[in-house]
Amino acid sequence: MVNAGDMNGSGNLMDFLDEPFPDVGTYEDFHTIDWLREKSRDTDRHRKITSKSKESIWEFIKSLLDAWSGWVVMLLIGLLAGTLAGVIDLAVDWMTDLKEGVCLSAFWYSHEQCCWTSNETTFDDRDKCPLWQKWSELLVGQSEGASAYILNYFLYIMWALCFAFLAVSLVRVFAPYACGSGIPEIKTILSGFIIRGYLGKWTLLIKTVTLVLVVSSGLSLGKEGPLVHVACCCGNFFSSLFSKYSKNEGKRREVLSAAAAAGVSVAFGAPIGGVLFSLEEVSYYFPLKTLWRSFFAALVAAFTLRSINPFGNSRLVLFYVEYHTPWYMAELFPFILLGVFGGLWGTLFIRCNIAWCRRRKTTRLGKYPVLEVIVITAITAIIAYPNPYTRRSTSELISELFNDCGALESSQLCDYINDPNMTRPVDDIPDRPAGPGVYTAMWQLALALVFKIVITIFTFGMKIPSGLFIPSMAVGAMAGRMVGIGVEQLAYHHHDWIIFRNWCRPGADCVTPGLYAMVGAAACLGGVTRMTVSLVVIMFELTGGLEYIVPLMAAAVTSKWVADAFGKEGIYEAHIHLNGYPFLDVKDEFTHRTLATDVMRPRRGEAPLSVLTQDSMTVEDVETLIKETDYNGFPVVVSKDSERLIGFAQRRELILAIKNARQRQDGVVSNSIVYFTEDPPELPPNSPHPLKLRRILNLSPFTVTDHTPMETVVDIFRKLGLRQCLVTRSGRLLGIITKKDVLRHMAQMANQDPESIMFN
Predict the structure, then answer these.
(1) Percent of residues, the chain, with pLDDT higher than 70
(2) What's the CATH code of the domain at 495?
(3) Distance CA 178, CA 463 (A)
(4) Distance between CA atoms of residues 400 and 319, nearest Å
(5) Are 563 and 610 in a shared domain?
(6) CA distance 300 to 73
(7) Contacts of 384 (CB under 8 A, 6+ apart)
(8) Cα–Cα distance for residue pair 260/278, rounded to 1 Å
(9) Is the N or the C terminus of the chain less surrounded, counting Cβ atoms within 10 Å?
(10) For residue 209, what pLDDT is reported?
């Protein structure tokens, strides 16, 4: 027997081997990690490296490499996430235009790129060039007329169905985890839950490819949420290359937090917003060191995306705006109204979407994911094509709604009646009466708004990658633009009213409808996700509109207040609860007056707690206990009579220890005594060789007394990230409380179904 050496419950895990065997310290799928144990193991590793670094130059270099490995991982994540985001943007641009036509000079050019390269394009007809042909022109030689329209309509639907079918088939066959937004699962993983394969290489590859396909199909979804999942897959891949992260689940989650920041950075071109999003929305444990590294990863990712320049505007932002008019205090009232609309839309969306997703899970509908995707795609394409605002990609729609109407704008939204005597500078056009194009655009936007609200409810949650940021922003932008035009026309026709008299004189440029669209987009996104600080920062980074931060803050706060009045859960928390993940939300309050004894197991009438004794059980007894129960671990007591607590042994490590002992240690048989003490027990002379397992024993398990208030227990589980906590009285073991027990108790107290918490 090898000498035990230093006694530490979370250090080197085997006594009978010189080196720990494979898989020690790892966790089974769909289980929660032990944060305290992971932290302790990392501290031991760091202490060992520091002490060794003084022995030789080579050990000192190794310690430097270990210290820099975190920054190297961040650099690699930023480079890969930025590259993938750039490729996705370029591919989506091309494939979206492919539904309507093709470039004759180079089929891989999008409509815009094709017309850039043409020498025959004029400024007035910049969207029309001989090199770009619609499918009707190419196939039947006609660009106008009923037959051309029907052919283009038919091919638009066919391309959409083709893209969607290919996407859902790839997800179903190769990577089932590549579906959905990914953010609910990322939040759960960052809280310490294990979902093997969710951040794997196949998931990364299939999610990247199918994300291009589904966004190009014209479905009401965005690529921003899935890009966070893609970036986290990159983070998981690179962390597996460094033992510092691959062997410690706690350290790995620090990398994933930074990767989530890089994902938002490339999704919106918002590096600071990405860091704040990771901190506010997805991360569970976010030390200061992770903040710096998240900032670095987001910076590298944004720089990489800027180098690729997918939008062709030499800017990182997707919807760059340049308004020439300040906002006025009187406008805060419509901004707050848009906040109210955003909160109501968020509540409506969450309730309807969760009801539909629950129906999908509990009825036969869930058995036909491919058919569901095809039907929703067909409905979307058929209704979307006739309306110019739903036919184009959602990002282009938002960009147009955010735009200010300059002298060179050709959009219907800018069809105002001009004063022929106007001699004002080009960028300071006064408010004008709306022309017929604006009125046409208004009712088309109203129809598009109703369509987007309804179709997004059914689209989010299907078995394809689907983000929610862009559809939510589109709903808000459409509502905001319509409100903005209404306020603008009111100010123009009634400038003598008391509310307009002080700031809106005749011939002045008072109201910017694009600003209302921007505020509406922020309000609706806030209503759905319940983001506040990160949302405002993302919005002003996204648009470059730093001057308008107060309207954005007013709308974001109002939408959160209104939405919270109907329910505290955002869409991601709602999906976490729907899937039964063991997520203990830091934002949830527990105010009930229950005690640990009310929640612990075993309860009255239940079988006694399954325990191990310190020196009186055989290998066969331990194996039988493991086989007959499915618990994650077992308390170790002095004896079943005294029930004095010694420590806690993890199930997985008991199995591995016994298996390896049988293979590598002579004399260990089924009736060998297992002991967890420092010295072996006194045994009869012919007894088989005993098995010492002290080093897999956690000698300092977290304990509370039976009269500890549950409010305190919940707080301990949240802040320390515990898997389980033992309940004692005067050192005597009474029971155990697991994270699952805490979550079920909280659900019960909130009059919800406790059985909805399915995992440990």
Answers:
(1) 91
(2) 1.10.3080.10
(3) 8
(4) 9
(5) no
(6) 11
(7) 218, 390, 391, 451
(8) 6
(9) N
(10) 96
- 224, 229, 230, 234 alpha-carbon torsion, rounded to 10°: 140
For residue 694, the enclosing domain spans: 594-748
**20: three-class secondary structure by DSSP:** coil
C-alpha span between 45 and 38 (Å, rounded): 11
pLDDT tens-digit map of 453-466: 999 999 999 999 99
> Has residue 146 been placed in a domain?
yes
Question: Which pLDDT belongs to residue 311?
Answer: 74
Which candidate, 721, 723, 717, 713, places its Cα nearest to that of 760?
A: 723
CATH number for the domain spanning 682: value is: 3.10.580.20
Two tokens at 529?
A: 């996700």
Q: Average the pLDDT over each of 157-171, 259-273, 480-494 and give the range with the smallest value.
A: 480-494
How many domains in the chain? 3
Spacing of C-alpha 103 from chain mean position = 36
* 51 assigned to some structural domain: no
C-alpha triplet 60, 62, 67: angle, nearest 5°: 95
pTM (whole model) above 0.85: yes
Residue type present at position 701: P
Q: What is the pLDDT of residues 179-199, one digit of tens each?
A: 999 999 999 999 989 999 999
- How far apart are the C-alpha atoms of 155 and 149, rounded to whole Å? 10
Same domain, yes or no, for 569 and 645? no
> What's the pLDDT score for residue 232?
96
Strand duo 697-698 + 732-738: pairing: unpaired
Model confidence band, residue 285 (pLDDT cutoffs 50, 70, 90): confident
**Do 572 and 603 have their domain in common?**
no
E strand residue ranges, 326-382:
none
Whether 28 has a pLDDT exceeding 60, the answer reads yes
Give, in order, the Cα–Cα distances in Å from 226 to each of 103, 330, 466.
29, 39, 7
Q: Which residue has the tokens 């039907």?
A: 375
